[in-house]
Amino acid sequence: MKGYFRYVDDILIVYKENHKTIKEILGLFHSLSPGLNFTLELEEFNRINYLDLTIMREENKLTFDIFRKPTITDAIVPSDSCRPIEHKLAAIRFFTNKIQTYNLDFAKKKKNKKKRKQTL
């Protein structure tokens, strides 16, 4: 196994398939915790979503993008609403911090900044 990453109830496993299959790893998890039901999401088209990231496998490296569920509206507090200014600024900081702290390449940062501007 190359890596095991867990956040609350989401687990991401990076592994070499020539050692074990994912079905064997899933069976191991079920045998360790028989009371829990683990579900499996496989990589499709060299990409998988984990939390709010899309992880893409390109040649010998991983690249990242911000994942948005298809149902997301990206709506934030309208600037002309009667909400406190702190709420409005917090939403802007949230989007900005995501773009700045994630390991995104230049094109993906630019795309996400454009998306952020559309929501303001």
Strand order of the largest sheet: 3-4-5
Uncertain regions spanning at least 5 consecutive residues: none
Q: How many helical stretches? A: 3
Portion in strands = 15-25%
Whole-number total of structural domains: 2
Helix content bin? 25-40%
Mean pLDDT: 83
- Given the helix and strand composition, which structural class is it? alpha+beta
Count all strands and give the number: 5
Intertermini distance: 42 Å
The succession of helices and strands, N to C, reads EEHEEEHH
The outline comes out as elongated
Describe the largest sheet: 3 strands, antiparallel
Q: If you compute it from the alpha carbons, what radius of gyration comes out, rounded to the nearest whole angstrom?
A: 18 Å
Concise structural overview:
The protein is α+β, with helices and mostly antiparallel strands and 120 residues long. It has helices at residues 22-32, 85-101, 106-119, and strands at residues 3-7, 10-14, 47-50, 53-58, 61-66.
List the helices and strands and how they pair.
Elements: E1 3-7, E2 10-14, H1 22-32, E3 47-50, E4 53-58, E5 61-66, H2 85-101, H3 106-119
Antiparallel strand pairs: 1-2, 3-4, 4-5
Search tags:
120 residues; alpha+beta; 2 domains; three-stranded antiparallel β-sheet; two-stranded antiparallel sheet; 3 helices
Would you write up a description of this structure?
This protein is an alpha+beta fold. It folds into 2 domains: 1-42, no CATH class; 43-120, no CATH class. It is 35% helix and 22% strand. The chain is built from 3 helices and 5 strands; from the N terminus they run E-E-H-E-E-E-H-H. It has helices at residues 22-32, 85-101, 106-119; strands spanning 3-7, 10-14, 47-50, 53-58, 61-66. The strands form 2 sheets. The protein has a 3-stranded antiparallel sheet. Helix 2 runs antiparallel to helix 3. The longest helix has 17 residues, at 85-101. The radius of gyration is 18 Å and the shape is elongated. The termini are far apart.
